[in-house]
Amino acid sequence: MNSFFNWWSARYTTEVRYPKESALVATKEQHSNTTSVFLRDFVERRCPSLYSEFRPAWWLPNGHMQTLYCVLGDFSARDKVVYKRTLLRLLDGGTVGLDSTPVDDSHLPPDTPIIVVLHGLTGGSYESYVRAILSPACMPVHQGGLGYRAVVVNFRGCAGVPVTSPQLYSAGHTDDLRQALFYISHRYPEAPLLGLSFSLGANVMTRYVAEEGERSRLKSACVLGCPWNLAANASKLLATYIGRHVYSKGMGRNLVNLLKRHVSTFASDHDVAKAAAVTIALTKPTIDMFDEHFTRIGGGSSPPWPFASANDYYEYSSSHNVLNKIKIPLLAINAADDPVVQDVPMDGEGNGWVIMALTPCGGHLGWFEPDDGWGQVRRWIKRPVFEWLRATGEDFVRSPPRWRPLHQEGGFLKEVGTEGLGCKELDGSNIIVDTEGEAGLLAGL
To answer: Model pTM greater than 0.90?
Structure first.
């Protein structure tokens, strides 16, 4: 009988993997003196929900149901967030949109932690999975929140951000995040920046912190539903009927629709415009078809773009093979029944800064469990993410980072030693209140 209960409990227990040698980190808890502990011990003590059972809602028992509810469920009345949008013009002529909350942050101390968020494939700050965490995280402490600021970085062309250069975004292009962090760290020089990212955005953030190493402007990172090995996961997605005809074609359709909205902004004689014209003419393209016809050409700046093929783009842009370069605490959470991401590098490449967690269920960005009231759900993932943000934002003491200094040149904010990158704030800002996206089914995945 005991073996049965152990098996039943194990069905809902998250697998958490640490390397043999965990990083030694400095912490300061409850205003005590700074002490050194292993990252594993720190996480086990400060993130107990990571080890709690996740029991999915009985009516959402598998990865497909969890994933589809993530995009079909009505979350418009929940987790309302009001943002103030700032547009940044980048040195290459492109534009990204920063959505900040709370709108009035004048009451917050200058060293209040800031959650820097990257959304999924064709999503934005309006996504329910983004709001589910930011709404309570940015709530005042006396109301049960963390009292933090948050900034969502909306990719070029997403969530109403205009396309102003012959380039979109991709899983491997990290410079837009890098330039957004120039701006955020310059505006809030005393605030620790905590990364939080989803799906495609998780891949971008993982690559960014790996590329920067000890120079990362993010103090920590939490990546959810990261696609890791892009070639392997694209191949496994296409191997099943529902993977090819529901998920891959759904995401491909959303990317084509996004491209259609912005194709007129490209100069007709540009290679990216030519690729866009071919791509929008495709009939029911899968995501790999979109990548073959467009992303490998217009998904980033040169070099390294353009790539000879989608496979070359996947090889360059994957994040599973850069985990060993990360030098800040990174928590990655995936679900074992995720129909979109089936290949997860649970060894973390043996990096002592990386914690890999795999829930037995939850789908892609779902993690829905029963809530109070018939048919109501809540996201289990909020609890471990909350604990991680609080622990790394308030108690983890980072060694003095080796940031390159920032300076103004020609109206652009630039980083010393980083060529070709810079940003400046455009005049005017607006308030973003609604919670509806614009890209259709499977948009934010």
So the answer is: yes
